[in-house]
Design brief:
Elements lengths: L1 H11 L16 H34 L12 E5 L5 H10 L5 E5 L7 H8 L3 H7 E4 L5 H14 L4 E7 L3 H11 L4 E7 L13 H22 L5
Parallel strand pairs: 1-2, 1-4, 2-3, 4-5
Helix pairs in contact: 6-7, 7-8
Length: 228
Amino acid sequence: MSSGIQMDNMRFAPYDEETHGKAAPLPNRRSRNRGLRFLLLLFFVLCGLIAGGFAAFAHYVSGLRTPANVSKADAIIVLTGGQWRLEAALDLLKEGKAKRLLISGVHPSTGPNAIRAATGSDIGLFSCCVDIDREALDTIGNAQESVKWLRENRFESAILVTNNYHMPRSLLEINRIAGDVEVTPYPVVNTRLDNGRWLAEPGALRVLVTEYVKYVASLARGMLPLQG
């Protein structure tokens, strides 16, 4: 009788090859629910961080003002691409705020005469004190070519002219490689966006979102090890 019972137990015991004869445990639904809740919580935390970061970025950018007066520097750098940047930089040069001006990111087919005519500047000013960079294709290139120009001329300080929404990323890229060169921001403001006005301007909101994404990407790129 005893051996018969043992045979019956062996005959009907569930077998699993992977566990060598032991039945595999059933999935724990409670553990899966906990994992799902954790992933959802992580997702909402990330969304909150992104939204909070954008709100801080938009608040900072919309609060930037064009300085009524800026201290003198060795050089002025203006990044092409935005409205009134060139005019603002040339005005600073005329006022004697720096010895020389670099216009970075000029299209290869655009000559100094075309720029001078478009801005209504004096030909003598361009002849003596303006350099043109045609190599830069983006903000990273602007930074590289600008710092190269600063070092070639042994300038120790510079005024950076670009639009307010573009200023944080431009400063980040230039300061990353500028070394001891002191860079003073000179933001150009075309439209007042303070006090949350950017929320009611679809065009401005789109520009801010795009620039924020690029700024975050620039921050992330700076955390990567330098390529040799």
